[in-house]
Design a protein that fits this description.
InterPro entries: RlpA-like_sf. By secondary structure, the chain is α/β, with parallel strands linked by helices. The chain has helices at residues 2-27, 44-54, 59-62, 78-81, 125-130, and strands spanning 30-38, 73-77, 96-101, 104-114, 121-123, 141-148.
Length: 149
């Protein structure tokens, strides 16, 4: 009887410890590594307004009130964006992207797609500075790891 009870307890422990990992996998829509670029130098709030009002996701129209006003906004590379639908119907729109570069992690909201040849994550100055960039310096940040979910 003790042996079977031990087996049951062990089986429960394994199934409980496995559950969080499965939940994390279900929440992540996609992930990868991309270069990062500055979308617009200067005031981050002006950059954010452009993404919010004019980005492919149509946040100001289709996601009004669903995006925290203090969250940075980004454009993801079109080779990532296009796999998940068109414009505001794209399942990445208004989702949180978690980006990590050289030990610094930042969160932002997907607002647009970057159709440039660089195929990088376009960001505003607040995220750019967090990743070591400076206003006026457009040097790409190489190999930013990211997850959208």
């Amino acid at each position: 009887m003790q042996l079977s009870l031990s087996v049951i307890v062990a089986a429960l422990a394994v199934s409980i410890s496995a559950a969080p990992a499965e939940e994390v996998e279900k929440r992540a829509i996609t992930s990868g590594t991309s270069d990062g670029s500055i979308f617009q130098f200067g005031d981050a709030s002006r950059c954010r307004k452009i993404f919010y009002d004019s980005g492919a996701c149509g946040l100001s129209t289709y996601f009004k009130g669903k995006v925290p006003s203090n969250m940075p906004l980004v454009a993801v590379p079109s080779h990532v964006f296009d796999k998940f639908g068109e414009a505001q119907d794209n399942m990445l729109c208004a989702k949180t992207i978690t980006m990590t570069y050289k030990g610094v992690t930042r969160k932002a909201i997907v607002a647009d797609e970057n159709t440039s040849n660089e195929q990088s994550i376009d960001m505003c100055l607040d995220d750019w500075k967090a990743f070591g960039g400076k206003d006026g310096d457009g040097t790409l940040r190489r190999n930013i790891k990211w997850t959208i979910g």
